[in-house]
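Researcher: Let's walk through a ligand-bound prediction step by step. First, I give you the protein sequence. Second, the SMILES string for S-adenosylmethionine. Third, you return the three-dimensional complex as structure tokens. Ready?
Model: Ready.
Researcher: Here are steps one and two:
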Amino acid sequence: MDFIPKDIQAYAEKYTSDEPESLSSLNRETYVNHLYPRMLSGHLQGRLLAILSSLVKPEKILEIGTFTGYSALCMAEGLLERGILHTIELNEENETTIRKYFNNSVYRDKIKLHFGNALDIIPTLEGMFDLVFLDADKENYVNYFELIISKVNSGGVILADNVLWNGKVTKAKETDKETMGIRAFNEIVKNDSRVENVLLTVRDGLMLILKK
Ligand SMILES: C[S@@+](CC[C@H](N)C(=O)[O-])C[C@H]1O[C@@H](n2cnc3c(N)ncnc32)[C@H](O)[C@@H]1O
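Model: Step three, the predicted complex:
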């Protein structure tokens, strides 16, 4: 579902900072070579991720759900000089595209790519994070939140994508596991006294969460 009329979306993109050429190239290549290319964050949300990351000035970023690497490269723009971004992807079919764009990036030495199930990998990651982008399997959003909340520094930020799930979250008859997973996540975040949050109606819904 497109929540925003096409002409308004085009206008918003026109008056948003340009997408860097390397990311336009990755965007195009993802649409040509990968299934479900709409999973990629894209120009407007990508610039939002880059600006939010620059505001947070993270030393450590965790991304759950790399896909072809677009959002990781956006968030890497805000990393501190000594910073590192961990990103986790289940599907090894994405590896060639991810490695091509990470290796050609100025952030190549600051990105650590993990392949496997994020539910298994997150507990093995040491230390605390300043920024987390949750963008993998929707039925596990609550499990991811529970795994990461104690690993986020006070003042740190969690972003969760697709929290409107095509608008299905608002329709009681929709009871598939992804819709139920997102609804449960939104409920838990709203009622967790450790965080403040705003559900931004950007693209498919982006939950912005501040750890107190
Ligand atoms: C929406 S896409 C990520 C898009 C990417 N963050 C971006 O904005 O360009 C979700 C990705 O999560 C991956 N994924 C799904 N379940 C996963 C899991 N349990 N562990 C790690 N990755 C998973 C999928 O293979 C898919 O590539």
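Researcher: And what stands out?
Model: The mean pLDDT is 97. Residues 53 and 68 are 19 Å apart (CA to CA).
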